[in-house]
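Exam revision sheet. Question 4 asks you to relate a sequence to its structure. Input first:
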Amino acid sequence: MKLKSMTTVITKSALVLAACASLNAFAGTSAPSGKSGKAVIPPVEESGALLDTLGASMETGYDTRYYFRGRYFADNTVWAGLSLSVPLTEQLSLGFGALYTSTAGTPMGNGAPKGKGSFDYSELDLSTSLTYDAGFAKFGLVYTHYEFLDGNSGTNGGIPVGAGELNQSGAEEVGLTVASSVGPVNVYGGYYYDFTIGASYAEIGADAPIEITSWMSLVPAVKMGYGFGDYYTQTQAGVGGAPNRRGSLSGLTHIIPSLSAPIKLTKTATLTPYMAYNISLDTRHLNNAQESEFFGGVKLGVTF
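Answer key, structure tokens:
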């Protein structure tokens, strides 16, 4: 009887252990534990597909004034852009970009008849670039095509406005860029050559993001530009028989301090209002609408 009883206990114990093992394997909810007692989660294998590493972003925005490298172009502009970044190696990436800008209404000046006091302006920029991450800095080579759909200075009823301001239909440009950081300050610069006008432009800038909350920051920034070889330089007709005035052949174009406030709406969407103050310098103060003025705007960016 004792042998039979022991055999029965062993048999029942084996059946219970087998049942537990079977249930555990079926449920799949248990995992081996590490030394800390926490479950060890097996690593997820990367697929290595192109779309898993493709960086893309879309932005749209509104500006009360459109200044580009110190030059005034239009008022009340709306714009939208798309950019893609494709990694070629761990340090080298290929980029593509498209940006469309259009005025929602730019006045010709005070005293113009109603309905005839504004001009149209629209622009399409297409670019491709190579970026190399050297660790201490990022270096870029970028080629950009500018298409001025209403002429370089816009049109009023189909008539070009500001023909003396290089009223071409497009431009081709190549540039070299560099970006790095010194402590909390981001610094960047670029040198660009415009094949259409045969002149070049250089720019330096810096910004210092300040975290206010986990979802909002303040970013003070400043940029300054310099034109070489008649970049953004033109003749202004004299008044009352006075001789024409001409800006410097080479010189500072502008300096522009700004303050933006990126607001993180979601993990992928950021809303950024900003204000800036454009100060026209040697080669721009003759022909900008205002020598110095405040302007601002807002943009919404989404990454995916």
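Marking note for examiners. The radius of gyration is 30 Å.
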